[in-house]
Amino acid sequence: MLADYHVHTRRCGHAEGETRAYVEEAIAAGLVELGFADHLPLVRDWRPGFSMLPDEMCAYVAEIKELADEYAADIVILAGIEADYYEEAEDEVRELLAAQPFDYVIGSVHTLSDGLGFDQRRQRRRFAAAGVDRVFLENYRLLARVAGSGLCDVVGHLDLPKKYGHQPADAAAVGEAARGTLQAVRAAGIAIELNTAGWRAPAGQAYPAAGLLAEAAAAGIPLIFGSDAHRPGEVGDGFPRAAALARGAGYTHTLRMSDRSLVELP
Ligand code: ZN
Ligand code: FE
Ligand code: FE
Ligand code: ZN
Q: Is the entire prediction scored with pTM above 0.85?
């Protein structure tokens, strides 16, 4: 009985389908909980098509709370958010988050401090110029700061820089940085997600990869599942495979966000 806690809506400008259609997919897939985690407005350099605007947040939360009431007999629906972390604008992110009664926050890094959006196809050339290892190292450094910031309940897609198939040359140094992130997550008492979108990307691997997931399991870090659906048909995508991956990595339980209890994996 799994739950999907990372689902977007059309409000971000790059997802499709009615919000209600995501709910109906989740029910059809037999999920026990569905958590929306659409993109928090970008505090730096907002552009259309990347996230909702601050004045759309109330309507976003209201729509989800209404659906939660309407479908209460069938599924638990939560109003979460995926917040981009900006090292230089932590206070602005904090203010945006405090303005709404979000059920939980996924803290993510998609953009480095120099503006490199490493998960965007159109920035691939800039990614290559920046150096693959440097991008991975910077990703983990920022994620450790996300974890320590107190802004989030879950750290999102740990090894997202691999999205287009990049792998670090100095695996030892990058692995060390990743372990630093896990230590920060553990110290903060927060969770990580097993994000299945990587199986739909050139990476061909979930985020995080099996090795890092095993280290997180060994560290006792709670785990949630997320499809990162940007269309209704992606809700719960790859979850049986993800549950098997988690089991293989040493996880026996998953975190339920509605009451923060640990429930046994299927
Ligand atoms: Zn998105
Ligand atoms: Fe993300
Ligand atoms: Fe996402
Ligand atoms: Zn995401």
A: yes
